[in-house]
Amino acid sequence: MASLHGGAEERGVPGLANALVVFSQTAEDGEIEVQISVHRLMLDDNARTQAYKQAILSQANYFSDKVVLDVGAGTGILSLFCAQAGARKVYAVEASRLSSLAERIVINKTVENVCLPEDEKVDVIVSEWMGFYLLHEGMLDSVLTARDKFLKPDGKLFPDIVSLYSAPCSLPKFYDHWEEFHGLDLSPLGDEERRLKGSQPDITEVNKDDLLASHQIVCELDLYKTSSKDLDSISSRQVFSVSREGRYQGVCLWFDCSFPSISLDATRVVLSTSPHCQQTHWKQTVLVLPEEMYVTEGDPLAWELILERGGDDWRHYNIQCTLLDPEEERHPVPCECLLPKCCLIREIIDKHAQTLGSQE
Amino acid sequence: MASLHGGAEERGVPGLANALVVFSQTAEDGEIEVQISVHRLMLDDNARTQAYKQAILSQANYFSDKVVLDVGAGTGILSLFCAQAGARKVYAVEASRLSSLAERIVINKTVENVCLPEDEKVDVIVSEWMGFYLLHEGMLDSVLTARDKFLKPDGKLFPDIVSLYSAPCSLPKFYDHWEEFHGLDLSPLGDEERRLKGSQPDITEVNKDDLLASHQIVCELDLYKTSSKDLDSISSRQVFSVSREGRYQGVCLWFDCSFPSISLDATRVVLSTSPHCQQTHWKQTVLVLPEEMYVTEGDPLAWELILERGGDDWRHYNIQCTLLDPEEERHPVPCECLLPKCCLIREIIDKHAQTLGSQE
């Protein structure tokens, strides 16, 4: 047991005078193996850090005097925000031998093996567990374990609702670039690059103008109810109606996560990794299609996405994307695509609306 | 043997109709292991690609009908520039099993084991062999081997003169950043990061405004004369006079390389990786000092830099930087620092100039 109290106060962190930040075990004095630069990247991701800060500090009246568990605390930044917000105690659990900084003790233990003193339960679990395409690295399981072991029945999860989205897109930097390069056509290099990329999802920044249709939801998880088993396999059949003509070259994935608003005057804070928002270190995840296709407005597109835990490393996922025949899929109602059945449905809905309108 | 002729022409590359690009061996049909994305990074480095393009294409009258050897051809972009410039033949040698693209054959052989047909000699060796801080990865040795084996006595090297520079600098992103982070003082994290970085040079972008003195040359290599042995150990004792006050936190290294101007109307093209120029993928190399020091204008600084080939991997270098007592070092003449001897020398020079002036 060690207290951050003195240290934090000495360093002049405002609002920490009332907080006792307790780390649950002394760190091994072993070598520090994890490069701080990875954490620096995450800290420097302003959308990420700012969302957590706002979600926590805007509800200081809720956090006041609460007991918090920070799962996968890393550099401890979320713990410090909770302490700033008035938390009475923050247990920071970190599995990697990240660092034993001056006034901080980080344990080399997974949350599965943690025991809080006198089987204490916590009011809040904060965690920044999201990986690429939300699920990569499977750290959510640790949060769910912590929830089941340590969260009070009315306790809160920060974040508590997460969603994975997808949309068809163009990938100009994997195509256009090679076709005219300093007066040379290097498209064979582009073909090769795409072939290599075809074997695994690529983490890259997708421009919002390169999305070819409105996004669809792959899955939404309510973290109070989700079980580890639910994460073994996630699948979704999706139909899109092209809203911008262009070269259909990839499937773009991203996620949002949303924080509870407990205080009456607070609104839900959403951290979005959408191409429509400020880019984050998660960027977007792209599945590069083996063949491109030119699509125009109103064209229907369909695919089935399956995310399954990998065999050897259960924390990794295999992503499978199967392009489907959109004519054989059930479309949303109404659907903007130009397939006869969808045009017909739109017409019926329009007429119905007119009829209702004329009856008013 | 395979010809790029047909392929290049079919793909409409201008200026290739007269060029026969010959690759010296059939590639193994083995798996492609090197990620093209590394080469993409280099191709996308516009300062790099543009410098080679300009150095080569601006001297098309020299390249016309010449035989060229491209050492470490990678994606073959330099070979294509030479072909565009009118080269009769381009031998492209690539040691890695990079890729066997449609119309291109890249050999899986080091240049040391290459034999050109009928012991042909070449007019030009082009190569982009530079690593971080110029020498990292030691690919220059392969170019020197190729020079000794294949270059005609009056043949040219592209590039032919390279220089390594150093200057003292501030490293705000390794310091300032942590001291005020979302209302928190995370300086222990910064200390830790710098401690980790202390064990090896960091590749990072240094802002020109963070340089604290004019740069000094660590070494200049004339590649017509340099031997592999010259590269085993490079050292330099350097004295700087601080030109901008600030926090002296690191030693910044970068390099320039310069291409021959053979045509009468051509000027030397210089590819610079200086903080004063457009940033390249080489960025700058920084040695983070264990302690920072506040310096003001006129302060003298001195160090000895030693770059030595590593023990286990002779292609890697160990860099050692020893801070010296500037009072005990020989300063350049004139030197702008405020040490009495340098002030005195400046005064004498000034007076001498006045005397000379009054005699005129």
UniProtKB/TrEMBL annotation, chains A, B:
GO terms for cellular component: nucleus. GO terms for biological process: methylation. It holds the Pfam family PRMT_C. Keywords: Methyltransferase, S-adenosyl-L-methionine, Transferase. One of its GO terms (molecular function) is protein-arginine omega-N asymmetric methyltransferase activity. It comes from the Eukaryota. InterPro entries: Arg_MeTrfase (IPR025799), PRMT_dom (IPR055135), SAM-dependent_MTases_sf (IPR029063). Residues 164-320 form the Protein arginine N-methyltransferase domain. Signal peptide: none annotated. This is Protein arginine N-methyltransferase domain-containing protein.
